[in-house]
Write a structure and sequence with these properties.
286 residues, alpha/beta, Rossmann fold, 2 domains, six-stranded mixed β-sheet, four-stranded parallel β-sheet
Length: 286
Amino acid sequence: MIKIASVSLWLLIAGIAQAGDEDACTPAEDPSRIVVAGGSIAEMLYSLDAGGLIVAVDSTANYLPESKDLPSVGYVRNLSAEGILALKPSLILGEHDMGPAEVLSQISSVEVEVKRIEERHSTQGIVDKFVCIARVLDKEDAAREILASQFSDTVTSLEKANVLSADLPRAALILNFVDNQPIVAGANTSGDGLLRMAGAKNIFSDIEGWKPLSRELLIAANPEHLVVTERALKSIGGLEGMLSDPLLAATEALNADNVHVYAGMSLLGFGLQTLEVALSLKEAIE
């Protein structure tokens, strides 16, 4: 079984495509002072024992204990050129959606190398991202060893879960509650990708993006499982708050005690922690 798992993982690694821009995965000219825009990228750098190269992170890295004492450059989609350049970085390593575009143009104009790493919401996408980042630092062998030694069985199990079937557990993923309305994951979201990784059917895959939804529609869809971020659960008053709402309490998920709660970035950041969360969810809904 271990041999089969290892072979499966190596096939995944062997199939890695270039991520992001054409040269995003090529070695950096000078990775000695890295500003990271994206929590999952910071997480992967720490996994590669490259945390000493990081001089600043954006706010999406707040979930990482290692980054708590580092300067912040704001939010990944709302970066400040002045704040970044004051740190004298040699490399900006960011998620595909970092911005705004004019800030990145300003940074590039002063000859600071910028690499934008693609994110695909799948098991293969996480493996690709990790090896891409390792290539930037000339640490590909280390990344392959980490994947083989720590994630082989996890990746294999998730790949088996990602098989289309009419019998998949029916689930919804709630990012937050705003005025008691759930914000749910539709198609082309990290939440939709996470559910698919775990072998669940997203009952809201017919809507696009993250959308507010009436509780009446949530009941009509009647998920067997609810996946909820810690922030969402806190905003609704905990599990007690959900159970005290007659509409939410009427769902099959709450009746069967099938509410699965995870930290937001671990759940949706699509770093290595997301592999572990997806496997945990897969095992919980089987």
